[in-house]
Amino acid sequence: MSGFLILVIAIVVVAFAVVAMYNGLVRKKNEAQEAWSGIEVQMKRRHDLIPNLVNTVKGYATHEKELLENVTKARSEAVSAKGVVNQADKENMLSSTLRSLFAVAENYPDLKADANFRQLQTELTDTEDKLMSARRFYNSAVKSLNVALESFPSNVIGNMFGFVKREFFELDEGERAAAEKPPKVEF
To answer: What is the CATH number of the domain that holds 144?
Structure first.
């Protein structure tokens, strides 16, 4: 009888362990999904601000047509991108065109002094900061999920129940270099 009792206790312990690992993986998967949602919210806000910014710049920089078209095209591609890797690539391209737009704006003192332009620039900068924070949160959640899916014994449970690793939302080389380079301060 004691052998049977030990077997039942062992089965119950293993069942509880499997349930705990499964629930942990579900929690990590949902955290990654929630984090991705945070990125999507900030990208939507960014995408909504860009047409106003382009229209404001158009009024001052009429001969910068190609740059404005590039910004509009990059925004359109970013809005329609699917999947984490493709979305990251298109968002990185959009960031690059926005940097070009702000660099060109430096050549137009009236534009830099325009209250609407300054407000849009401030809002975009704020959105970029929030997007960077959302990326960090997402990548942290993805790391946690992926480590659990690669670690024994939760990898066995993950494979049994069809959990899959997620892709990181990574910066492109230009953004990475800009992030690593200290800002230039002039007085």
So the answer is: 1.20.1440.20
pLDDT tens-digit readout, 45-94:
999 999 988 888 887 777 678 888 889 999 999 999 998 989 999 999 99
Per the CB < 8 A criterion, the answer to whether 30 and 148 are in contact is no
Higher pLDDT, 31 or 121: 31
* Residue 185 placed within a domain: no
> Which domain covers residue 51, as residue numbers?
27-178
Question: How far is residue 49's CA from residue 46's CA, in Å, rounded to a whole number?
Answer: 5
- Is the backbone peptide bond immediately before 183 cis, with ω within 30 degrees of 0? no
Q: How does pLDDT run across 91-105, given as a tens digit for each residue?
A: 999 999 988 888 888
- Please state the domain count of the chain: 1
Backbone angles phi, psi at 164, to 5 degrees: -125, 150
Amino acid at 6: I
Mean pLDDT over 9-27 rounds to: 95
SS3 139: helix
- Nearest-angstrom CA–CA distance, 21 and 27: 10
Cβ count near 174 (within 10 Å): 13
Tell me which DSSP letter residue 183 carries. Answer: P
Residue 4 lies in a domain: no
User: What whole-number distance in Å separates Cα of residue 54 and Cα of residue 102?
Assistant: 11
Q: In Å, what is the CA distance from 111 to each residue of 66, 114, 183? A: 18, 5, 23
